[in-house]
Amino acid sequence: MRTGTPIETKLHDLHRAVAGYRGVVVAFSGGVDSALVAAVAARALGDRALAVTAVSPSLPPGELEQARLVAAEIGIRHRSVRTDEVRREAYLANGPDRCYHCKTELYGVLGRVAADEGLPVVASGANADDLGDVRPGLAAAEEHGVRHPLIETGFTKLDIREASRELGLPTWDKPQSACLSSRIPFGVRITVEELSRVGRAERALKDLGFRQVRVRVHGDVARVEVDPADMARLVERREEVAAALTALGFRFVTVDLEGFRSGSMNP
């Protein structure tokens, strides 16, 4: 039960904040957070709003097409651009500041897009709950002058889903997503091949009907996280799951009994 500011009031504040940008490029994954920012930007700014999806080996398979579909339904202009974080040695080294180097690449590219389009602001989908998590990317955003309208107006994850449902957005109940590098333990070097393997592993599980999935990599061990409500079904289909993942080169396939947890590999 909601006890804070009514969601209608928060949406009004968000609309007013984004309208004040006078033009915006939204860092757009097509997930629940960036979709809300994009939807409000489209309503507030029309053609002065542009959603941009970054494409690289760290983007989960199928997410670009989903982003295109969501942008079309929202009614915002959409572009995709290449980012080259995998050419950055500091990113590949996979230290605890990995996200900083990834976002530095992203916001550099989006800044150039914004300049080319004559749009004064780059905005992210970061929200108030992110302030209590390990988010080195926020430092990169600050260095590039990126705005966070959801933080500026006090939106939590719960608020975002409620507001998205209120606006009829198709993403209101979309499972959380994150770049594929978050499946590899800090300190283990990232490779394009490993990112591809993780992406294919998670795609295989989604094709089996699991919506919220992470395949965490520990050498030749795949540690599978699903929503706790899907745990029994995962065990029932263990032979199919194991076959799909061993076919990708994993020697062992395990189930994390705690289920899906965002940031479970954070230090």
Fold and architecture overview:
The structure is a single chain. This protein is an alpha/beta fold. It has two domains: 7-166, Rossmann fold (3-Layer(aba) Sandwich), CATH 3.40.50; 180-255, no CATH class. The chain is built from eleven helices and seven strands. Strands 3-2-1-4 form a four-stranded parallel β-sheet, sandwiched between helices. A three-stranded mixed β-sheet has the order 5-6-7. Helix 2 links the parallel strand 1 and strand 2. Helix 1 packs across helix 2. The longest helix is centred in the middle third of the chain and has 20 residues, at 98-117. It is globular. The model has no long low-confidence stretch (mean pLDDT 94).
